[in-house]
Design goal:
By secondary structure, the chain is an alpha+beta fold. It has 2 domains: 3-133, Four Helix Bundle (Hemerythrin (Met), subunit A) (Up-down Bundle), CATH 1.20.120; 212-318, Elongation Factor Tu (Ef-tu), domain 3, CATH 2.40.30.170. Helices cover 55% and strands 16% of the residues. The protein has helices at residues 3-65, 77-89, 94-125, 135-175, 213-216, 227-230, 283-288, 306-318, and strands spanning 187-190, 207-210, 218-225, 238-243, 251-260, 265-267, 270-280, 296-300. The strands form 2 sheets. Strands 3, 4, 5, 6, 7 and 8 form a 6-stranded antiparallel beta sheet that branches. The protein has a two-stranded antiparallel sheet with strand order 1-2. β6 and β7 form a beta hairpin. The radius of gyration is 55 Å and the shape is elongated. The two termini are 83 Å apart. The relative contact order is 0.07.
């Protein structure tokens, strides 16, 4: 019943979950590694900027306190010496001091702004997903779903078995009365709707008994005409049905129109009107005519004497 395929499908989905989560975690770890590297670089840049601010503050303190030396790593030693040289050469040093000190806060402010931007960048870089550890939970959920489906399928199969047993029991009961006897003799015409079917609903018409043509010696001729010709037909008009190769001979039977449908029937050839004619058969014809034969039907619209027929034919040849 394909249950091995269902089990293999479960194993494949389980493997897909494991592979999918492993791939996702590999991407997360890669992103985390890149983020940590970026954070390390930003932290190094922040340390450099902080050191520059410290160097400016040390320069500011040296100018205010009239100190002559800075830390060995401080890059502003040259600026301090230049200030000291100018300071000693001038009598009014307040303007010079103010000029040098006014530049330091602006530089520190720019460095602090850069540090703020880097801090924001470092904070946003640290937002990355944690590794996914839900594969066991997902596999357990998948296992539960497959077990539920298997249980439902088992219940369905058991119900089908019970139903089939009941059907077999009913069939055995009906088999005893499975012979149909027609109330009269004739030709059996089976209903094509039930052809090839083993079960038929109760009360259905499975066949019709057509009268024995050899006994009743009459048949109905059914044919269809177009709308332009139906107006030429009337009840009691004569028709001729020409049949080829009936009993190794050509046969023509005559009849009279009995009914003409008032409404058209839709067919593949368009809308046609159904006409039914009754034919009385001779003993000879009734032996060879069968139900379902097809041929060419000619409707006798009017009758003429031989004299009138040839007269009209001659006159028409001159026109």
């Amino acid at each position: 019943f394909g249950y091995s395929d269902t089990f293999n499908h479960f194993l494949k989905q389980t493997q897909d979950i494991i592979i999918g989560i492993a791939k996702k975690n590999a991407e997360i770890n890669n992103q985390a590694s890149l983020a940590n590297h970026a954070i390390s670089v930003i932290t190094s840049q922040l340390d450099e900027l902080h050191q520059k601010i410290t160097d400016y503050e040390e320069l500011k303190q040296a100018i205010n306190n009239q100190e002559y030396k800075l830390s060995p790593e401080n890059p502003h030693q040259t600026a301090l010496k230049k200030y000291q040289t100018q300071f000693q050469a001038q009598e009014d040093n307040s303007a010079l001091k103010e000029e040098y000190l006014s530049q330091i806060p602006q530089n520190i402010s720019e460095l602090e702004s850069s540090m703020a931007n880097l801090s924001i960048q470092r904070a946003s870089t640290g937002n990355f997903s944690l590794p996914d550890t839900s594969h066991r939970i997902k596999i357990d959920i998948l296992k539960t779903q497959f077990l539920q489906n298997a249980s439902q399928q088992l219940t369905t199969v058991e119900n089908q078995i019970t139903e089939l047993k009941n059907q077999i029991e009913q069939a055995n009961i009906q088999l005893k009365n499975n012979i149909i006897i027609a109330p009269e003799t004739g030709t059996i015409h089976l209903n094509s709707e039930f052809e090839g079917k083993s079960l038929i609903p109760n009360g259905s018409e499975v066949a019709q008994i057509y009268p024995d043509i050899q006994k009743i010696k009459e048949v109905f001729i059914t044919y269809y005409v177009t709308s332009e010709h139906v107006s030429l037909l009337k009840e009691k008009q004569g028709v001729r049905l020409s049949l080829e190769k009936v009993g190794n001979q050509t046969l023509t039977i005559n009849g009279t129109i009995q009914t003409i449908d008032k409404s058209a029937t839709k067919t593949n050839q368009g809308n046609l009107f159904k006409v039914t004619a009754l034919s009385k058969l001779s003993n000879k014809d009734s032996d060879v005519v069968q139900y379902g034969l097809q041929g060419r039907v000619t409707s006798v619209i009017t009758r003429k004497s031989y004299f009138n027929y040839y007269k009209d034919k001659i006159l028409n040849s001159f026109n």
